[in-house]
Structure formats: C-alpha cells, structure tokens
Amino acid sequence: MERKVGIIGAGISGLLASKYSLSKGFTPVVFESRSTVGGVWTETLQITKLQTPKPLFQFSDFPWPSSVVDDFPSHSQVLDYIQSYARHFDLLRHIKFNSKVLSVAHDGPPEEKIQAWQLWGGDGEPFSSKGKWNLTVEDTHDNSTEVYQVDFLILCIGRFSDVPNIPEFPAGKGPETFNGKVIHAMEYAAMDFDRAAEFIKGKRTTVVGFQKHALDIAMECSTANGTERPCRVLYRTEHWNVPDYLPWGVPLAYLYLNRFAELLLHKPGEGFLLSLLATILSPLRWVFSKFVESHIKKKLSLEKFGMVPKHSFLNQINSCLVSTVPEEFYERVEKGSIQLKKAPKFSFCKEGILVDGENTPLETDLVILATGYKGDEKLKNIFVSPTFRDSIVGSPTASLPLYRGVYSSENPTVSGDWILRECFKLVHIGDEVPVGDGTFKPPSIKEMEKDAEKWDKYMKRYAGGKYYRRSCIAAIHIWYNDQLCKDMGWNPKRKKGFIAELFQPYGPFDYKYAHHQN
Questions:
Q1: N or C: which end of the chain has fewer CB within 10 A?
Q2: In the predicted model, what is the mean pLDDT of the chain?
Q3: How confident is residue 515, by pLDDT bands cut at 50, 70 and 90?
C-alpha cells in the first residue's frame, strides 16, 4: 500500500526528508513555495558566505566538489551544492514548486480523543490508521488552490524566513511617524544584487541588529556610501561574533565539538557519574570560554570599540548565536564608514530614530530592520486547529516541546526539522532519521514529555535569557546524536580508539556508513 509523506519545504531539511523517505519505500510529496530548491540560500546578500566551516556543513553522503576550495564558500557555491544534491539523488521530480501550503488540518478522531492518547499517533505507529493530514496548497502562479491528503507530515519550513520579527512601538512612535523608508532585512535580501546596491546608494542608512544579517547589510551599505554617508548599526546587545574558528591557533572544534568538551556540561538525561564529572570539570568549562573570548577581544579590538559582551562565549554557543564577522568590519568602524550605536530601546520620529534617554534624533533616510524572524509563529500558524497550534509551540516560557527536537508528542504523525536545522544546519545523524520503517518506536507520550522537560532545563541552564526558545544543541550535538543512534540500534561511537573518540571533533562523515555497519 502506498504511503504518502507530505514534506513542506525544499530547503536542506526537506531534501533530506525526501531522500530518506524514498529509501524507506514511501512516496514523498514536497511542497515548495519558491521556484527552486535551496531554502534561505535562494535569497541572500551579495557578500554572504557560509559562516560554518565547510567540513561541518555537508551531506554525509555527498561531499563538496573539489572545485570549492574555500573553507567558507560563497552563497552561490552553497546554493549550487544544495541543488547538485537534489539532482544527484533525483529528488526534483518529487517536488511541487510554486506551491505554498496555506493550512494543515488533521482528518481523524476528535481532538478530545487525541488528547487522551497515551501513545504517539494513538498506537505508537507513524502511519497510523487513526487519521491523515489534509494540506490546502496554493499555486503561486494563478492563485488556485488544491487539497492534498498525506499519511505522514514533515515540517521543513525553517525558522529564518517568511515571518519577519518587527519590533513593536507605542502609538505615534512607530515607522508610520518616520518620513523615510523602513523595511525588514527579508525585503532587502529578496532584491537582486544590482537593485539592492541602487536602493541603498546615497542614503543615510541605519541597520537595526547585530547578528550576521545585520553585519552583512552594514558592509554593503558601507561599500556603497563610504564615509560620506556612513552606515549606522543600532544594536541592543554585544555578541561574541568570531573573526575565525582558530582561537589562538587552536581549532574551535577541539574546544567545543568533541566528547571531552561535552563532559564539561550537564546534559539532559545524564546519570549520576556524568553529572558529577561535569561539576568537577566546570572550572575547565570557564577556562575554555575565557580562552576564546580573549582571542576575539584581541583580534577584533573589542575593548577599543566598547563592544565586549557581558555574557560568556559559552552562553553564545549554547544559543546558536555564534556568527562570523565580515572581513574588515571593525576596520571600517575605525575609518568611519560604519558607526556603532547601542540602543536598548528606541522609537521613530519624523527625522529618523530617537534612542530612549536621548533628546537628539539620529537623522536617517532608510532603516533596515535586521531583527530576525518569528519562527514559532510561522510554525503554529500553519495548523488549522487552535489546539494543535498551541501544542506544537508549547508554553512561551519553555523550549519547544518536541521529542528529540523532531516529534510533536501531541500532534499525531507530524514531525519537524526544528533541532535538526540548529546543529550546523546539516545535522550529522539527521541525514538518517527514520520515518516509520519500524526501526524507531517512540515511547509513550508521558515519557516524551518528560524528555522534553529535561531538554528545556538544559536550554535554560546554558543558553540564558530568552534564547532557550531557539532549541540549540550546538554544544552537545554528539550527546544528541548518540540518542538518535541508540533509537535506531546503531553504535554511537564512530571513532577508532579511545583517544580519538574522546578528543577528535565529530562531523557529518563520522555517520556516513552508520546504517550499513549496524
């Protein structure tokens, strides 16, 4: 009997889901709102590069071509690589392009009955007989709609696109008061390169934000206008953005991406001995963080510019907020073509921006909000049912309640890519997550919820502040992958020898033949 797997999104996660659904004998139906594969890489800035070292950002069964020699490939090279993967595994024929999923509805038992289930999907099976999913899909060319029915649903919609996070302002102090132009970084990235360059040319531009997108936009504005019309970067919090991945000549991977580094952290579901060891080794955790921080401060002259963060690098990496600083960024700050301005709160006025506590407005012609996206809202709004909407994003004071960061305990036969996109975007073991092939059996819903609570405790312990909602596993990705390996009956230890297992960094190729070896 044919089993249809609905996959929303043809970015990296959607392609992986499609490939491995096919390998299990299922029929994937991929819905992509754009006209090509690649997800966020289809709309980037001209100077955007990969900010994760290439060896950590690759498919386990499809290495980068030898023609790509840089450790941080350009946006066009990344997009070519992703599209080559889709062609190589003949995935394009399973994708419905220009097809935007408007809504998802469960066709099955009443919600009251579903909430009383003790097993995921009612019987613990991914392809349950207790219901299917109806997807209302719009053809973006002619705006016609069609309803598709699938047996299993995988959400690969990403969290860094489509629904911009626009700051809220008091009445009369928002963008409507401003005489200039206000756009979100999403709109700027959607422009072609020539149009974007023309759009910012000759304008006094203010970029709000201090993550990768904001820094790249500031660099482009600086290139276009120089010191004559410097680009102002308005930021709320300083961040440990890295100049490279070699603090004092030591690869960062040896400090944070091996098993020894993970012994320094308290992990979800760990036993007494591991917990005791993490407590004993906690001073070393502090040393590693200070070691990296000292390198960043020295190389970027952060003290000179008043840009030393108050939080630790450990908090930064546990929030998945580590991004690379564009080359010559602080050189341009020193020369004056980029100006940095701290503004915990601000509002708009006719002339431009008014920082709270100051009387003189910052005059500007254009404001670009590089303030991120509302990933949670994007995730929940795709569901018709208010109950499903609430259950999949959970409480605003907790991390997303997803078992293994993938399976929703309360939404039957639905999974997502939420954590799978957080660990270097191409999760090593994420290439192999099984969908209903009998290898993996989810535990009871109560056990899934307890496990999610343990991960919530971990996120809050190390991410700090509001960032626990990002469901970041970067600092314990090996521990996370170990759980997946055990779920599927694989040996989680992928290295040869005790020393290598303890100290060598883990990457995608460590899991290349995992399913063959077991």
A1: N
A2: 89
A3: low
CA-closest candidate to residue 218, choices 374, 346, 369, 320 = 369
SS3 516: helix
Q: What is the pLDDT of residues 257-272, one digit of tens each?
A: 999 999 999 999 999 9
Pairwise CA distance, residues 66 & 255, whole Å = 28
Q: What percent of the chain has pLDDT over 70?
A: 92
Residue with token string 């709000």: 208
| Segments in 52-130 forming alpha helices (H) | 75-88, 111-115
d(CA 92, CA 70): 28
Q: Which of 43, 37, 17 is nearest to 84 (CA)?
A: 37
Query: Which residues make Cβ contacts (< 8 Å) with residue 115, sequence separation at least 6?
Result: 387, 410
pLDDT digits (tens, 9 = 90+) for 431-475: 444 445 556 777 888 998 899 899 989 988 998 767 777 778 889
Percentage above 90 pLDDT, the chain: 66
User: Residue 2 class from Cβ within 10 Å (0-12 exposed, 13-18 middle, 19+ buried)?
Assistant: exposed
d(CA 516, CA 61): 12
**Cα–Cα distances in Å, from 505 out to 55, 83, 249, 479?**
11, 28, 16, 13
Please give the full DSSP string across 262-313, using - where no structure is assigned.
HHTS--TT--HHHHHHHHHTHHHHHHHHHHHHHHHHHHHTHHHHT---SS-H
What is the DSSP-derived secondary structure letter of residue 252? Answer: T
**In the structure encoding, which two tokens stand for residue 501, read together?**
């297992």
Contact predicate 274/281, CB 8 Å: no
For 378-407, the three-class secondary structure string (H helix, E strand, C coil) is HHHCCECCHHHHHHHHCCCCCCCCEECCCE
| pTM of this structure | 0.90
